[in-house]
């Protein structure tokens, strides 16, 4: 019994396994050797010029494959090559100037009981705002966008609450 076990452990791999291993080593060696792109920076490819089946390989017109620099294209293919990077192009034209941004930044404040307004000075508009209430909660907080008044309005859920409103005002472009 002991002799039968030791015989099994000494078996050699099947010939197909050995051939597969050799093919694998050759394939990985070939991949490691491929030079894509070539030393001069060019990339070589082949594209099919016809539709068909050749040696069991189906192809359609326009099919493209990248090949190693020393590999030949198939009989139904045309060779093409391109560079990784080309010569720099000319500068484009300058774009148009954008609109001027806002100016005259200023914070306006207003305080009252129950409802407060922070009014922007003449010629300015509110672009943001907020505030606080002494008790209760903020019921509404929103911009006042004219035409009579520009600024920020804030009111409380409690009419006796002290309310302060803030408006971020800028000169409109």
General description of the model:
The protein is of the alpha+beta class and 173 residues long. Among the domains are: 36-84; 103-171, Sandwich (Immunoglobulin-like). 16% of the residues lie in helices and 43% in strands. It has two helices and eleven strands; from the N terminus they run H-H-E-E-E-E-E-E-E-E-E-E-E.
CATH architect. name of the domain at 103-171:
Sandwich
Helix- and strand-based class?
A: alpha+beta
Binned strand content: 35-45%
Number of helices: 2
Percent helix among the residues? 10-25%
Write the layout of secondary structure elements.
Layout: H1 2-9, H2 15-33, E1 42-48, E2 52-54, E3 57-59, E4 64-67, E5 77-83, E6 103-113, E7 115-119, E8 124-133, E9 138-145, E10 150-156, E11 162-171
Antiparallel strand pairs: 1-4, 1-5, 2-3, 6-11, 7-10, 8-11, 9-10
Features:
single chain; 173 residues; alpha+beta; Immunoglobulin-like; three-stranded antiparallel sheet; 11 strands
Task: Write a brief structural summary.
The chain contains two helices and eleven strands, in the order H-H-E-E-E-E-E-E-E-E-E-E-E. The protein has helices at 2-9, 15-33, and strands spanning 42-48, 52-54, 57-59, 64-67, 77-83, 103-113, 115-119, 124-133, 138-145, 150-156, 162-171.
